[in-house]
Design a protein that fits this description.
The protein is mainly α and 295 residues long. It has two domains: 131 residues, Serine Threonine Protein Phosphatase 5, Tetratricopeptide repeat (Alpha Horseshoe), CATH 1.25.40.10; 107 residues. The chain is built from eight helices and two strands; from the N terminus they run ααααααααββ. Strand 1 and strand 2 form a beta hairpin. Helix 4 runs antiparallel to helix 5. The longest helix has 34 residues. It is rod-shaped and about 135 Å long. The two termini are 87 Å apart.
Length: 295
């Protein structure tokens, strides 16, 4: 059985009275806190005492308490007991003089499996309302709750580890494998050879490009060997291409002994403790060697 909560000015009946806007704000705020508050209560029930009521509630507090009580009544009728408890506890915090809320809270606690909190709510209600007409019924409920709490099985202690269990076996430490004493050859000769290879590639590409321009110019001449009958407007470009061809050829020729010297040096160099790895690298607009050395 639930009792209706009436304040000093307005009676909170289901379906009428109260501010709709206040109820919407309470619904959003209290619903968010519901899962934080009552998730812990379900794990380990511990009755929390109600603080003494030492002051009279203000008119805004009374209005807020009525709205929260009405919302809790709706949730209780829908069997949503955790949310009903949340609303009714908020209503009682706002107006601690509305002792009848404790009566309804006790029923919600009991249906939610919180027997100790239900018992405390009923005992607090009788302390503050000793002349209540519901006192005989409340005393019977208190007795039933005490018997139910006493009949609950005690918590089972965790089993201690058996002393007869064999001691854990330990494996001997694994000796690390000795590091290899075989070292690699020095990296510097390969760097020299790599530089020579890059010069050869760049020089060859430049030589081929300049030769193509020179051949195109000579194809426009009547006598290419004597430079007769050549177009005058292409003379400057042809001369520049011829100089580029000579410079690129020189770079290509110089790169050959550099490559050979680096390779020969690497071949005859003694092994050392350095570790060397050479990886060919091919990418967009790039061709060369990647040298990874550890000293």
């Amino acid at each position: 059985m639930l009792l209706r909560f009436s304040g000093r000015t307005v009676e909170a009946r289901s379906g009428e009275g109260g501010s709709r806007e206040t109820m919407r704000i309470l619904s959003r705020t209290l619903t968010t806190a519901c899962f934080l508050s009552f998730g812990l209560v379900a794990q380990a029930e511990e009755a929390k005492p109600y603080p003494p009521c030492t002051q009279q509630a203000s008119d805004p507090d009374v209005s807020g308490a009525k709205a929260a009580f009405q919302a809790g009544t709706v949730s209780f009728n829908e069997a949503d007991y955790p949310r009903a408890i949340l609303y009714w506890e908020d209503a009682f915090r706002r107006d601690c003089t509305a002792n009848i809320i404790l009566f309804n809270l006790a029923r919600a606690y009991e249906l939610n499996g919180q027997k100790r909190q239900a018992l405390l709510a009923l005992e607090t209600f009788l302390e503050r309302e000793p002349n209540s007409s519901e006192k005989p019924q409340i005393l019977r409920r208190i007795e039933v709750l005490k018997q139910a709490i006493a009949a609950e099985p005690p918590p089972q202690p965790s089993a201690a580890p058996s002393s007869s269990a064999p001691p854990p076996t330990t494996q001997p430490p694994v000796e690390p494998a000795p590091a290899s004493k075989t070292g690699g050859k020095p990296v510097f000769p390969l760097i020299i050879a790599g530089v020579g290879g890059a010069m050869f590639i760049v020089g060859s590409l430049a030589y081929l490009g300049a030769s193509s321009k020179v051949n195109e110019f000579e194809s426009h001449c009547e006598d290419p060997d004597n430079r007769q009958g050549c177009p005058d407007d292409e003379l400057d470009d042809a001369e520049k291409a011829r100089k580029d061809q000579q410079a690129a050829g020189l770079v290509t020729l110089v790169s050959l002994p550099i490559i050979a010297g680096g390779v020969i040096w690497y071949a005859v160099a003694p092994r050392s403790t350095a570790s060397t790895r050479v990886v060919p690298t091919v990418g967009q607009n790039f061709l060369g060697l990647t040298v990874d050395g550890k000293f």
